[in-house]
């Protein structure tokens, strides 16, 4: 799975708990976070940014073989 920050601001990700600005996994502008079998997490992932901003955080997810 890959999460990409398409926003012009920093986004923070959190696994299993609501995201908090300034804490967790930091995604810079156009940054990405990848998950595979080495850092697998099964659960909810939350995202937050500190400014209202038009754009999106995109997620691409593959199938397990």
Summary of the model, kept short:
The chain has 65 residues and is mainly β. Helix content is 0%, strand content 35%.
Class per helix and strand makeup: mainly beta
Rounded to the nearest angstrom, the radius of gyration is: 12 Å
Low-confidence stretches: none
Average pLDDT reading: 86
Element-level helix/strand string: EEEEEE
Side-by-side strand order of the widest sheet: 4-1-6
Largest sheet: 3 strands, antiparallel
Architecture blueprint of SSEs:
Layout: E1 2-5, E2 11-15, E3 25-27, E4 32-34, E5 45-48, E6 57-60
Fold and architecture overview:
- With 65 residues, the protein is mostly beta strands.
- It has one domain (2-53).
- It is 0% helix and 35% strand.
- It contains no helices and six strands.
- The strands form two sheets. Strands 4-1-6 form a three-stranded antiparallel beta sheet, with no helix packed on it.
- It is globular and about 30 Å long.
- The two termini are 14 Å apart.
- The model has no long low-confidence stretch (mean pLDDT 86).
Give me some keywords for this one.
65 residues, mainly beta, three-stranded antiparallel β-sheet
């Amino acid at each position: 799975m890959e999460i990409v920050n398409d926003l012009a601001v920093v986004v923070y990700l959190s696994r299993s708990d609501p995201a908090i600005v300034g804490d967790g996994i930091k995604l810079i502008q156009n940054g990405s976070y990848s998950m595979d079998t080495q850092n697998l997490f099964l659960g909810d992932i939350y995202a937050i940014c500190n400014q209202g901003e038009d754009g999106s955080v995109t997620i691409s997810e593959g199938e397990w073989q």
